[in-house]
Amino acid sequence: xxxxxxxxxxxxxxxxxxxxxxxxxxxxxxxxxxxxxxxxxxxxxxxxxxxxxxxxxxxxxxxxxxxxxxxxxxxxxxxxxxxxxxxxxxxxxxxxxxxxxxxxxxxxxxxxxxxxxxxxxxxxxxxxxxxxxxxxxxxxxxxxxxxxxxxxxxxxxxxxxxxxxxxxxxxxxxxxxxxxxxxxxxxxxxxxxxxxxxxxxxxxxxxxxxxxxxxxxxxxxxxxxxxxxxxxxxxxxxxxxxxxxxxxxxxxxxxxxxxxxxxxxxxxxxxxxxxxxxxxxxxxxxxxxxxxxxxxxxxxxxxxxxxxxxxxxxxxxxxxxxxxxxxxxxxxxxxxxxxxxxxxxxxxxxxxxxxxxxxxxxxxxxxxxxxxxxxxxxxxxxxxxxxxxxxxxxxxxxxxxxxxxxxxxxxxxxxxxxxxxxxxxxxxxxxxxxxxxxxxxxxxxxxxxxxxxxxxxxxxxxxxxxxxxxxxxxxxxxxxxxxxxxxxxxxxxxxxxxxxxxxxxxxxxxxxxxxxxxxxxxxxxxxxxxxxxxxxxxxxxxxxxxxxxxxxxxxxxxxxxxxxxxxxxxxxxxxxxxxxxxxxxxxxxxxxxxxxxxxxxxxxxxxxxxxxxxxxxxxxxxxxxxxxxxxxxxxxxxxxxxxxxxxxxxxxxxxxxxxxxxxxxxxxxxxxxxxxxxxxxxxxxxxxxxxxxxxxxxxxxxxxxxxxxxxxxxxxxxxxxxxxxxxxxxxxxxxxxxxxxxx
Length: 743
Ligand SMILES: Nc1ncnc2c1ncn2[C@@H]1O[C@H](COP(=O)(O)OP(=O)(O)OP(=O)(O)O)[C@@H](O)[C@H]1O
Ligand SMILES: [Mg+2]
Prior knowledge:
The protein has 743 residues and is an alpha/beta fold. 48% of the residues lie in helices and 12% in strands.
């Protein structure tokens, strides 16, 4: 089927054809035949890279241009939201009937806001969590949604993030019963169930743009699913390395999935030396450039140096321990074919578009503390395997498992290569997870009686798969908890949220975190310090995994805790009475210590070394701390602890920027982060007034500040620079222009 023949506006056809797509892929054709463009609800389950996004794009444009509708595109990850935003942006040149251009917006941050500005957008890309928070604020524009696209809907199966997606869809269906639903999924076993839940039809295909060969490598021989076999050259004693090298030597790229971050880093180091030997000169030059980009992205650390070293040799690793800036550079240069080999943890298998000719699964087992080793699911294996094959570059892709013995090879063929993916199951019925959804159902006016609440949860995927009865017990236990903690009040049949309950729901925190905060803020410690607040937030479940002390740090952390005992807003568990709680508490202490060091302007490199924390975990901890300190400030206000407000305000701002108090006014300037702020301050410009008075040449002479940034700073302070003066300055200092990122 040709794009030109579709019943979509001409302007859309032109743009799509201009982007290089003239004909639909078979799964797209099937989706159109199933009524996707006629407003029918549809689940499209189809392999990786089979073009599911285009179906969503065409649907969205049809809604906007022909029905004046509004589309929300739900993704499970911020990185994916960014990717989709870039893809949809090409349509902003098209005019709508009212003579204005199509507007595409993205909203992924700040959970405590209705983002009213989104009302102006025709397509809004967001994460499931952000959509959930918007629904809790009852953002008005959400009633106008006429199409919702739920991408990667097989994520319903994930314990942490699945329930949010399920609740968001159930709520949207309740608010907009006439809205069209388009759900996109990897190949799964029970598409029919998801479709029935969403009152949708479904299309499943196995079609792939590049053929996939799955197999198992034993020593130097690959056994493929179709009975084929292939020998690879033995260059080293490690057969995984030999396989990767055989791909790179023939002009391909390899993606190796490892079970842990540590394995990803170790394996990349091992591979780099071998890969380097087969790189061409021009390839090396291009990599040199990428390595430099890594070094200038953010503060320089030993980790960025070792990553840059690997990149020079055509290899890199990718996992959640890396900072976002580095991850993006690595993804881009892998996509451009510069990096030849990437080792990664399985998170990369979800959604982000990073295909490679050869996908290797180093280890089909995972380790979980207290549980031991267990084999990964077929669904997860298929997700990883599906990454194989770059359209336009590879004729076939191959996905290879590694076996050590004949028996293991047989087992892998049987249990993964030939196996069908499992059914997916709702993960909603867990008290910890349901708690905040039950509160939100009441606080955001989705239901006001116990029966109303059951009725709402009766519309979830959980209720479809099991039945509401199974979840009732947990809900009524949660209602009792919310009542005991004054988050809801009951009058006859009616249940309403208290002010506290309503605010907790909007702040998007776990009710248990809110109770911890409320009780802590009532305490009157001898001394109320940064540590009081930093530890309190680390003590809430919303902080996520705390930074655990290593054995050699134990003494230091314990001493720190003793020193600050009188400042704490929670009790210290008995060291011998409750060992588990005590160790957890030491982790909270270490988290507080790390955050304290961050706001004392300790460099990122030193933080990483001193606390042995990886950048990604450091950034995650800071992000969570920002959000929880916002909640702390809001609850302090709600409970009328006026005398504390200046302190909660200050600590929140300091954590956001990672600075001492004296730098706060300076880092409000765009382009000035903690490093530059400190340079400016130490050069004698201690206030915004000082900077305003300083001649621009003096600012330019400071390290890390070029003419362009100096100009930007001056302009923010109401200054103006003459054109001739500016041109002269700009010529003088080409070099400094390069470091314009904020740090
Ligand atoms: N009809 C087509 N002809 C040529 N290329 C296409 C066509 N449709 C989509 N593509 C291209 O295929 C690539 C993959 O498409 P897309 O990202 O939609 O995959 P997907 O099905 O969503 O996969 P995943 O499961 O990985 O999310 C994109 O680069 C897209 O531009
Ligand atoms: Mg997709």
